[in-house]
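[Q] Does anyone have a clean structure-token version of this?
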Amino acid sequence: MSDKLENPDRALLQQWLEEARVEYSDCGDCKGLHLAALKGIEGVIDSRLFLERYGLLLTTELEIRPMALLPLAADLGRVNMDYPILKIFLDVVDDATPQLVIAGILPTQAGLTLEQTAQFLSSCMDATRQLAAECLQLDYLFAEGAHRGLANKKSLH
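[A] Here you go.
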């Protein structure tokens, strides 16, 4: 592993991902590299790594139950404080299911090493996994097992 600071381009970033053993795919439709490790988490819509002019941007979108939107919005301040390396916000569009967007940013202007990039990815991915598990436990997410619990509850209406 090299200690030399480099300003990564897409080819170098892909090389670093391979060296760090981070599985990714390139869909060709967007500029992001899709991360397989996070896409497998229950509730995750997509997870991508972007190389932007200011640095690396790792984003993951979770599908939020519409009924959980208000409690999650009220809990957002606490969630952002509990996960300081992530930026967490709601994305609500009229004709789509609400999403919780989780982002991590690593500036690259001064240059990066493979080790710094691997540490950034590992830290953000671990925090994202923990946050997704917490959201699942708090019943904020659409999940495969969510409908099983609803079958036992009786509705008043």
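[Q] Thanks! Anything notable?
[A] The radius of gyration is 17 Å.
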